[in-house]
Amino acid sequence: MIIPVNFFQDFLPIKQENKDSLSENMDAFEKVRTKLETQPQEEYEIINAEVKHGGFVYYQEGCCLVRSKDEEADNDNYEVLFNLEELKLDQPFIDCIRVAPDEKYVAAKIRTEDSEASTCIVVKLSDQPVMEASFPNVSSFEWVKDEEEEDVLFYTFQRNLRCHDVYRATFGDNKRNERFYTEKDPSYFVFLYLTKDSRFLTINIMNKTTSEVWLIDGLSPWDPPVLIQKRIHGVLYYVEHRDDELYILTNVGEPTEFKLMRTAADTPAIMNWDLFFTMKRNTKVVDLDMFKDHCVLFLKHSNLLYVNVIGLADDSVRSLKLPPWACGFIMDTNSDPKNCPFQLCSPIRPPKYYTYKFAEGKLFEETGHEDPITKTSRVLRLEAKSKDGKSVPMTIFHKTDSEDLQKKPLLVHVYGAYGMDLKMNFRPERRVLVDDGWILAYCHVRGGGELGLQWHADGRLTKKLNGLADLEACIKTLHGQGFSQPSLTALTAFSAGGVLVGALCNSNPELLRAVTLEAPFLDVLNTMMDTTLPLTLEELEEWGNPSSDEKHKNYIKRYCPYQNIKPQHYPSIHITAYENDERVPLKGIVNYTDKLKEAIMEHAKDTGEGYQAPNVVLDIQPGGNHVIEDSHKKITAQIKFLYEELGLDSTSVFENLKKYLKF
C-alpha cells in the first residue's frame, strides 16, 4: 500500500543508474545476500525502477527499457523493448513500470532530472516490440483486464501540478481513450492504487486532511466505480483487499491516529467498519503490506523502527524491534507470498536487506561484508524540551573516536511540514562528513509526521510556531550537551523546511554560523495569497488562508522568513534554486535574497568598520525540477560553502566524496 502524505510536495527525483532484481525460482533473501557480498562496499547503488512479472524482469538498462528472464536478470542477456532516446528528452530515466496482466503490453513513466513533466509510453510486447501509444503528464497508472480478456490502462492526468482527471484506455484493434472521472474540488488530488491481490483498482481522492476512495472491480472495470465512504472532513483512509474483505487504514474515531479496520467488500460504508488493530501512542504508520495470511505494518514508534506481523487466520501479532541504527524503510516490490523483504537505511549507511519469513516466523538479515561505519560511528537518540514542555526527538550521528565534540562541526537537519518525516535515506555526502569528523543532528520537530498525525497537527496552521520553538530547543540542547558550538554549527533544509530555517535566522541568528537551503519556501504570505499559483489552494490546510482569514494572515506574518528580515547579523547562507520550479517559484527566493542582502548592508553600515558581513550566495540552476537529490554539482557547492564558512580544511572530504559519487 502507498500512503502518499507528501503527494504534491517535495518530490526528489533520483536519476536511475543501476539495476537489482530478485528471483522467484530461488530464495529472494539468499540471492540478495550473494549479490551484496560481491558488491564493492566503497560505492553505493541506486536501485532502478523495475517490475517482475511472470518469468521476466522489466527494468532500465542504459537508455533503454528492457526485459530479461528472471534467472538471467543479473547478466547482459536482455531484450530491448524501447529506446528512450526516441522521445528526444535530455537524459531520460524510467520512474515507474507496470506490466499488463497477460504481458501483452508494458507501460513505463519517463522523466528527466530537470523537469517534473512525465511521459507514459505503452509498448506492445511481441517478436518486435513497438510503442503503441504515449500519454503526456501522467501521474499514476495501473493495468486491469476486463471480461473480454482485454487489457485496460487506467491513468491520472496532471496539469499544472494538479491531478484531477482519471482516464482509461485500450489498445490494439479496439482502441479507446476516455476520461471517466474529474475531481471538481481544486484542493484535492487523485491517484490510483491497485490492491496487492489485483482484485480492485482504487481511485484515491484526497487533500492534506481528508480522503475518499472509490473501487473499480478488477473483473469488470467498465462498470461504474463503487464509493466506499463519502469524504468527511478530517477523516483519512486507505484501502487494501483480501478474501472478500477490505482492510482500511484510517484515523476515524479517537484517538485521531491511524488504526486498522476491516469490513466485507460488499458493505464498505463507514458504519460497517470494525476495529481490527490499534497502534501505540506516538506511532507513525510508514506502510502496510498485505499477504495471503498475514498483514505487515511498518512502523516508527518513539523514533525507532518496528515491524508488526499480524496473522490474519488467528489475529496474532508479532512485533519486531529493528536495529537501532536504522532510520528508514525502503519497500520492495514483492509477489512472493512466503516472504516479506524490505531494506533498512540511515543517512550514513547504505541500505541493508532484511526478509521476514512467515513459515519460520523469523526476521533474517543479509550477511556478508559488515559495513565499517557500524564500528566507526555512533547513533544517538536524544530529546529536547520545547518551550511548552513538549519532548522533541533528535537523531545524532558522529564518529566513535571523536574527542572533544564541542570543537567539532555540527550540521543540523530539519523539515517540519505536511506530516512528512525528515528524510533519513542514505546520502554518501553525509557519510563523508561523519568520516571527516562532523556531527549530524536530525531534529524531528512538530509539523512533521515522526510521532503520528497529531505531531503534524501540532505544527501546522496557527501552530506553525511550535516547529520553530522545537528547532530552537534542539539546537540549544545540542550545544548544552557538548555537541559543537554556534561558531561551528550549520543548518540545512529543503523546500518547506526553509520556513523554519528562515524563521530561526530572523529570531535567533546567533545559534548558527552557516545555512544551506535548496528550493526553499521563504515567502509564505505572498505565495499563499496568490491563488494563480498551482498549489496555493491545495496548501491551505497546511499554511492557512491569509486572503480570507485575518487570523491566518496575522499569524503567518509572525514567522514568514521574508516578512521578518531586519537589519542584524545573519549567518552566511547558500541557496540553491531552480529556474523553472513550479512548486517554489524563483521570484520569491530572489526577493528574499535581495531583501536579506539589503538588511545585511544596512546592519554593516550601522556597525561600522571591521564588521565581517556574512556571505549570501544564490545559485540558480537551470531546469524545472523542484529538488535534485543526486546533483554532484549541487552537493560539491554546498560542502565547499560549509567548509569555507566554518574555516575547515576540505582536502580529505573532497577526495572521499569523489570516491562515493563516482566522479
From TrEMBL:
Enzyme class: hydrolase
Keywords: Hydrolase, Protease, Serine protease
UniProt key word Iron: no
A Pfam match: Peptidase_S9_N
Domain Peptidase S9 prolyl oligopeptidase catalytic: 426-640
SUPFAM superfamilies referenced in this protein's UniProt entry, alphabetically: alpha/beta-Hydrolases, Peptidase/esterase 'gauge' domain
EC number: 3.4.21.-
Family: Belongs to the peptidase S9A family.
Subunit structure, as described in the record: Homodimer. Interacts with the AP-1 complex.
Designated name of the protein: Prolyl endopeptidase
Organism: Felis catus
Lineage, top ranks: Eukaryota, Metazoa, Chordata, Craniata, Vertebrata
